Amino acid sequence: AQSVTQPDIHITVSEGASLELRCNYSYGATPYLFWYVQSPGQGLQLLLKYFSGDTLVQGIKGFEAEFKRSQSSFNLRKPSVHWSDAAEYFCAVGDYNFNKFYFGSGTKLNVKP
Amino acid sequence: GAVVSQHPSRVICKSGTSVKIECRSLDFQATTMFWYRQFPKKSLMLMATSNEGSKATYEQGVEKDKFLINHASLTLSTLTVTSAHPEDSSFYICSARERTDYGYTFGSGTRLTVV
Q1: Does B42 touch chain A (CB under 8 A)?
Q2: Are residues B102 and A104, on separate chains, in Cβ contact within 8 Å?
Q3: Record: contact B111-A41, CB cut-off 8 A
Q4: A102 at interface of B, judged by CB pairs closer than 8 A
Q5: For testing the chain A interface, which of B9, B38, B104 should be mutated: the one with the most A CBs within 10 Å?
Q6: What CA–CA distances, in Å, run from B4 to A100, B7, B70?
Q7: Which of A77, A80, A81, A79 is nearest to A68 (CA)?
Q8: Which residue in A41, A101, A105 is closest to B104 by CB distance?
Q9: How close does chain B come to A49, measured CA to CA in Å?
Q10: A103 and B CB contact within 8 Å
Q11: Considering only A12-26, A44-58, B30-44, which range has the smallest mean pLDDT?
């Protein structure tokens, strides 16, 4: 069965520090992978997505993610975090036909001044 | 870019009444729309997938008679919570898949409180 695991429930980083949010997936075929960000009480905003091709994907707001098939991972990174990045981040996987779309449990990011 | 409008953003209703939540794709046609429920400090749980012109596909454990989904057009899907109870209080989010793109766009969510 498909599943997405975000092992870190809560992460705190200092402003200006680098960030890596982990995501592991379990899927029988080629996954379509996404990272979303959610501010409190709001919907989700797409940061980036991976379908095929270059395994390093660039997204909005300076985020990037790298697809590593051998590790079944799709970790999100940002070289320098800004206070406005504090939010909850969700990794998601969709199947080829997009009949199913599953989210990880989310990682809440706090940014220290 | 693609925009999905979800309405209302907040609703308070009395126990036993029904509430309808609308999800509209404003500038694209959505062949498929999804409804999620998010519990406090929890991830999003896929409730059902609706395809225009056909019956929704519900995830295991989701009561189809309680959560009625209608996807009558390529731009509108509705979720009706029937005979709402306090345990139905939650944050409901829809998303739509654009026909020509594999991306998903999410609505801003609806906070339902049943009193």
Answers
A1: yes
A2: no
A3: yes
A4: yes
A5: B104
A6: 19, 10, 16
A7: A77
A8: A101
A9: 8
A10: yes
A11: B30-44
**Which residues on neighbouring strands pair with residue B78, listed in sequence order?**
B22, B70
- Is the pLDDT at A62 greater than 70? The verdict is yes
Burial of B114 (0-12, 13-18, 19+ CB in 10 A): buried
pLDDT digits (tens, 9 = 90+) for B72-93: 888 999 999 999 999 999 999 9
Model confidence at A99: pLDDT above 70: no
pLDDT digits (tens, 9 = 90+) for A38-55: 988 777 888 998 988 899
Check A106 against B104: CB less than 8 A apart.
no
What residues contact B96, with CB distance under 8 A and at least 6 apart?
B2, B4, B23, B25, B28, B30, B32, B33, B34, B77, B104, B105, B107
- CA–CA separation, B109 and B19 (whole Å): 14
Interval A24-50 mean pLDDT: 86
Rounded Cα–Cα distance for residues B6 and B61 (Å): 24
Quick check: A105 contacting B, CB < 8 Å? yes
